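tokens incoming
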């Protein structure tokens, strides 16, 4: 949903939830934003986070990633992402 955020469906409770988009840096290049979102969501979900928390963290990760001009740059380590997320 781009700047409108993300929509998450969870089968266990049969609900849809909207997760707003974060603005961590000015968007420069959106190439790879979806890949960044999916990979971060998968990382945190497999790591034990709830689906909603995983999507929130992934949204912040993707927001930061698109603030770089190169498609192969703008990636944060998990610790740096968690530190950034505390400020949002």
């Amino acid at each position: 949903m781009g700047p409108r955020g993300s929509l998450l469906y969870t089968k266990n409770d049969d609900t849809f939830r909207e997760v707003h988009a974060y603005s961590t840096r000015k968007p420069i290049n959106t190439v790879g934003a979806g890949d960044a979102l999916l990979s971060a969501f998968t990382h945190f979900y497999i790591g034990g986070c709830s689906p909603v928390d995983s999507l929130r963290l992934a949204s912040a990760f993707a927001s930061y990633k698109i603030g770089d001009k190169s498609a192969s740059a703008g990636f944060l380590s998990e610790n740096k992402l968690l530190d950034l997320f505390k400020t949002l």
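note: The beta strands are 6-10, 15-19.
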